[in-house]
Amino acid sequence: MSKVTIKEVAKEAGVATSTVSRVLSNNPKISEETKAKVNEAIERLNYKPNAIARSLANNKTKILGVVLPSEADDLLTNPFFINAMKGMSIYAQNKNYYITYVFAKDGKNEFESIKEITNTNLIEGIILLRVNENDESIKFLNTIEFPFVAIGRPEKTEDVLWVDNDNFQAMYNVVNRLIQKGHKKIGFIGAIKTLNMSKDRLKGYKMALEVNGLNYDEELVIHKQFFKENTGYAGAEELLSKHEVTAIVTTDDLLAFGVSQLLNEKRLEKISLVGFNNIQLSKYQTPPLASVDINADELGYYAAKLLIEKLENEDIVNTHYIVNTEFIERESFK
């Protein structure tokens, strides 16, 4: 059976094809009588409008854009992106929106990729997967008044839609628990220190030390360039070559995996280790890795929710969501 066309619907309803298009785009200039006639014809013929054609008639593509950082290239090694994308997709699908993913590749940073994708007229809104200090992507999107939401707390939250965890509190809680267990010399290994998430977690670390009467020693804090296993290993090498610590906190499980490898090689079984993100592989480490679950799928879900509500001109009660974290205690927490 051949697919019913818009021309056949117009003929059945006794109107022009342009009138059918206007009815599909809910044009207010079309009378209720004409709308009823066209809708009856659509029902009789079981016409299914082409999603792209319909979006062109509406001037709406119902497509959201997500630019993935270059280090997300191997998605299987950093499941944060997969989980966040899963959450976005669940909400978008419920609202009949589509998501297109673009990798920042070939030497281009995320900002350049964002400029390109916003120029295509393909997407209606964009989801930023992370936020830097003085974020040029946020400044650019605000300047061109392009709808967006950020996963991560922006420095200026006014008129910006965003979702995040309370990264300060989550790290404060971890370090506080370590101190309560008797740890006084705690190393910190993070990456990309310009990310607001990284800054907030470092602040939580510092505050927990201060509240418990311990001095902050910047030599115990290592920042690497990427959230990767090998950079975690290198960070641990750098830290342990100069200092004796009884515990190490990291800002990402991938960093913690590298730290764990070095601790195993050096047989430093007594050093406590904590990661962040609670990715699936954490429980299969030796020993199983204690980690903070940031509920990445919820971060993605609420990011898509905020953006779609804006695009649908709904009254937005919340301009941001704080997603709860949960400390998952495993054998590496000693």
TrEMBL record:
Tagged with keyword RNA-binding:
no
CDD domains annotated for this entry?
HTH_LacI (cd01392), PBP1_MalR-like (cd06294)
Keyword line: DNA-binding, Transcription, Transcription regulation
Pfam families per UniProt: LacI, Peripla_BP_3
Q: Does the keyword Magnesium apply?
A: no
Which GO terms of the molecular function aspect are on file?
DNA-binding transcription factor activity; transcription cis-regulatory region binding
SUPFAM superfamilies assigned to the protein according to its UniProt record, in alphabetical order: lambda repressor-like DNA-binding domains (SSF47413), Periplasmic binding protein-like I (SSF53822)
Q: Where is the HTH lacI-type domain?
A: 4-58
Check the UniProt entry and state the signal peptide residues, or none: none
Gene3D superfamilies, per database record:
3.40.50.2300, lambda repressor-like DNA-binding domains
Stated name of the protein? LacI family transcriptional regulator
What organism does the record attribute this protein to? Answer: Paraclostridium bifermentans
